[in-house]
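Section: protein folds

Sequence with per-residue C-alpha cells
===
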Amino acid sequence: MNQIPSSLPDSPKGIFDQTRILHLAITAGAMMLLGVVFFLKSDFSTDPNPELDDIFRVIVPLMIIAGVGVGLILKNRFLQSLTSETSAIKKLTGFRSFLIIQLAACDAGAILAAIATLLTGRGLYLIEGIGVVIWMALQFPLPDALIQMLHLSPEEGEQLQPNTP
C-alpha cells in the first residue's frame, strides 16, 4: 500500500492537527488578552471618557459583527471552491487558510474590545470581546464536521480520526 504515514506534516492527519493547533493558539491568545484586561480593570471604577465611549460604542460592535460576518460569508465561498478539489490534502490546506482568515477577522474585534475596555473602563466592551472569543472557540474543527463540510471520502475521513496511526 502506498499510504502516507499520518505522522508527516504533509499528510491529511498532519494538516488537520496543524489546523487545530493554529485554532487553539489564536483563540487562546485572544482569551488571554481579555483575561489580562479583566484583571487590570477588574474594579471598572474608571470614569468613562464620553468622547471615546461614544466612538467605541459604535465601532466595537460593528467590528465584531463584521468579523463574524466575513467569516460566515467566506465560509460558504471557500467550502464551495474546496469541494471541487480531488485531494484531501488540498481540501484541508484550503480549509486551514480559511480558518486563519476567519479567526483573524474575529480576533480583530476581540482586540478592539480589549483596547476599548482599557481606554474607557467600561465592562460592556469586555463582555462583547468575551462573546466573540466564545464564538471563535465554537469554530474548533472536529473530524466528523470536516468530513461532511469538505465532502471527504470514507478513506480520507478515516485518516482524520484520532485513533488512526
Remarks:
- The CA atoms of residues 15 and 54 lie 44 Å apart.
- DSSP finds six helices and no strands in the chain.
